[in-house]
TrEMBL record:
<dbReference type="InterPro" id="IPR001117">
    <property type="entry name" value="Cu-oxidase_2nd"/>
</dbReference>
<dbReference type="Pfam" id="PF07731">
    <property type="entry name" value="Cu-oxidase_2"/>
</dbReference>
<dbReference type="Pfam" id="PF00394">
    <property type="entry name" value="Cu-oxidase"/>
</dbReference>
<dbReference type="InterPro" id="IPR008972">
    <property type="entry name" value="Cupredoxin"/>
</dbReference>
<protein>
    <recommendedName>
        <fullName>Cupredoxin</fullName>
    </recommendedName>
</protein>
<dbReference type="InterPro" id="IPR011707">
    <property type="entry name" value="Cu-oxidase-like_N"/>
</dbReference>
<dbReference type="InterPro" id="IPR045087">
    <property type="entry name" value="Cu-oxidase_fam"/>
</dbReference>
<dbReference type="InterPro" id="IPR011706">
    <property type="entry name" value="Cu-oxidase_C"/>
</dbReference>
<dbReference type="GO" id="GO:0016491">
    <property type="term" value="F:oxidoreductase activity"/>
</dbReference>
<keyword id="KW-0560">Oxidoreductase</keyword>
<dbReference type="GO" id="GO:0005507">
    <property type="term" value="F:copper ion binding"/>
</dbReference>
<feature type="domain" description="Plastocyanin-like">
    <location>
        <begin position="119"/>
        <end position="232"/>
    </location>
</feature>
<feature type="domain" description="Plastocyanin-like">
    <location>
        <begin position="484"/>
        <end position="594"/>
    </location>
</feature>
<dbReference type="Pfam" id="PF07732">
    <property type="entry name" value="Cu-oxidase_3"/>
</dbReference>
<keyword id="KW-0479">Metal-binding</keyword>
<comment type="similarity">
    <text>Belongs to the multicopper oxidase family.</text>
</comment>
<keyword id="KW-0186">Copper</keyword>
Amino acid sequence: MKVDSLWTCLSYVFELLSGNTVQDQLPLGQGHTSNVVSHVDNIGSEPLMFEAPRDPRTGEGFICEYPRMRGYRKCHENDKHCWIKSHDGRRKFDINSDYENPKEVPLGITRRFELDIGEMPLSPDGVTMEHGKVFNRQYPGPWIQACWGDTIEVTVTNKLQYNGTSVHFHGIRQLNTPHMDGVNGITQCPIAPGDTFTYKFRALQYGSSWYHSHYSLQYGDGMLGPMTIYGPTTAQYDLEGALEPILMTDWNHRSVFEAKTGAAPKMTNILLNGNGQYGSGPDRPEKFNMTFEEGKKYLLILINTAVDTTFIFSIDEHLLQVVETDFVPIVPYYREKLRIGIGQRYHVIVHAKPRNPARHNNYWIRTIPARQCSKFACGPDEKMGILRYNTTKPDSDKDPLSTPFLFDIQCADEPYEEIIPWKKWRVGNPANNDLTKTEFQVSLKNSSGVPYVPDKRLLRWDMHLDPFRINFSDPTILSLERETWPRYTDVVTVDTPDDGEDHWIWLLITAPYGIPSEGGERMFVPAAHPMHLHGHDFALLRQSTTSWEDDKHNFTLDCSDERVKCDNPPRRDVALLPAYGYLIIAFKADNPGKLPHL
Ligand SMILES: [Cu+2]
């Protein structure tokens, strides 16, 4: 049987969990949950419950519950590689489990969350922005927490006055639930003002991410929040050392919807967890800060939620041990600074032991905008946070006197060779052998006749041939069986045999420069750009700063070309397309209905 494996819409959704172990959770931001499981059948061994890392805001541990995992227990504190194991130790759910295979993921519980979307003025840095759009009247939105294998159910109510919305859970695989991806125009109609929509999906992966509005640029006005799925880790840290996620973003004192057409507006400030400083007025908030206990190892969750900025993150005098890139556990490596592109996440472990102790023993947390991957009206403060030690020294509450590591701030991803996924992938040759015909050139197109502003000419990003256009009333997912597609939908159809083997779809994404195209309507710009694939982790077979125009003449687009890494290449769900360069990515054609975007 031939299966159109990219675009077949599965007509069923499987439910792994029955309703009788459901834990009802209070709306987020309205108090701590009781963490009580109702109606659990207590015959046999006790239901498995244990404390995940502590929530520093409540001081209480987040409770993981596996009432259906009879005969299992939590792995030992000193073995963070392992999550739970059978009493005889023969069966384990650990960092070696293939989290892409639902059979190798533990059966958790269902956790329910409620998110109300509303408008309110925000002043995260002392300057009021009138048109904030937020989840549950807070910015950033509430922290969605769950445990590996749980089912997450999020009921979203749109209380905005004017616009529709949809909520995307970034990086979540959405296996067999493509209609829960939250991309309006593709996987659903927008949620109209006054309407409610419930997202439900299984957390097969573990790690951290963010959820955000996928309606136009609403997330730039505040509609985003962090999400953590607790699971094993590839290096040791102390349980009590876990901290709340650190969200870094650029910020504008005007709504993103006030931006005039034309060039992207310059950003006005940086925020760390919704907290920044601007000017010197009395409303200026305290800097973001965290307190370490000497000698402990802390797990930090870093998430870039920016609109237009790649950040270089560092903590003076402290090395960062990187253990997870996006939702992919990796072989740990050490860095003085981390380059974090938009939408990328890292789990890092920090040893509370400064290399050279600074006076007063406190240290700057720096978020430096990467050169040429950021645009600010005037240079923002890069010293955005403070790491303190819980000492009683008289000067411990002063501003740090620490000095930064010396490093470059060029716009790039983390070093390609450092990112080694723990669970290995061996990528096969492309199932789509017409790769060059579907070269995805990223460019700007000078477009007219755009809906709502037909008399204006707009510069719009495009991939392949045209800016992507969606019809809110007719999401793509409803018509996947069609034979022909409009040019601007950029649909690539691949036939793969339904033989139980892995089939790899390769994509060539290029950033050419200076090549006249389409009568001068398309412009190739010398800027790096983050590329993101929904519903799959992708293998980064090659990330090149040289031009495809130079390389293509003697390039074989399969694993035989030594410039392509098929043997356990880096993988994640966001990668930076270098200016003038190109990416070759591959993903398994095992999750119908998904596509990349930028
Ligand atoms: Cu996403």
